[in-house]
Structure formats: C-alpha cells, structure tokens
Amino acid sequence: MRILRVLTNKKAEFIDITAAVAGAVSEKATTFGLCCIFCPHTTAALTINENADPSVTRDILTYLEEAIPAGNSFSHQEGNSDAHIKSSLFGNSLTVVIEDGQLKLGTWQGIYFCEFDVPRKRQVYVKTIDSDSRACSAEDLSRRG
Q1: Is the Cβ–Cβ distance between 28 and 131 less than 8 Å?
Q2: Of 16, 53, 80, 123, which residue has the fewest beta carbons closer than 10 angstroms?
Q3: pLDDT tens readout for residues 64-87
Q4: Rounded distance, CA 14 to CA 65, Å?
Q5: Residue 63 phi/psi, 5° resolution?
Q6: CATH number of 31's domain
Q7: Buried b vs exposed e over 52-88: b needs ≥16 C-beta within 10 Å?
C-alpha cells in the first residue's frame, strides 16, 4: 500500500491527485486489476470529476457552501458539522479499473482529494489489487456476448 501525503491550503478545496495515484499504480507494476483509494478522514473525501476546466470544481465548492453553510446551527460542538456532512455526501473511497498498467479513467476525468474543514496535513491510501488475466476486461466481456 502507498500512502500519499496531501497538504491542503484552504478550508474548502479540491486537489487533483490523479498523477500521484497513477504513480502508485506504476510503482506496483499492476497490469490488470483494481486501484482502491481511501481517505481516512471524516471531514475530507474523494471524488472523480472533470479535470480539464477548473471552474467545475469551483462551481461544486460554491454550491456546497450555499447548500451546507459553515456555522449553521448544528449540534456538533467542534463547529465543523458542515465538513462532516460534505464528506459523507462525497464518500471516502474510490475504486478505479487498471488496464494495460493505466488507470481506466474517462477522457476528462481526474481523481480529487476534497478538503472540507481547515488546512492541514492529510493522507490518502492507495492499494492495487492484481488480476491474474484480462478475462474481466470490458472488451473481453463484450466479445462473449
């Protein structure tokens, strides 16, 4: 397992970790299999979304702040309930197919670490699971009918 270190700079931000995750896959030399990505934090999350236009992630963050504003009258005493809710909505894990040694992402897709609390040092766990053959690839399944 590879541990990625993520240093966040804002209360709410998306950080593109696609290259770091792809690097972890490359290090393991996994040709076919799965890449499991896990965020062990309750006020941060992971998502896959467009990485070609940065206005997409800005729009998402703007909407989230309008829908779930910080400082609302939540019961949680630490004052970061909005971050916990946003993290729960996005989720803390992703699974991406590995084929021919590459993450099988769409043309415009990137993997993002989502910070919803305060700037801090974070971690992301990346684990590859090898498949013994191409038998499970979408191409092979489509040929089988």
Answers
A1: no
A2: 53
A3: 999 999 877 788 878 789 999 999
A4: 13
A5: -65, -45
A6: 2.60.120.460
A7: eeeeebeebbeebeeebebeeeeeeeeebbbbbbbbe
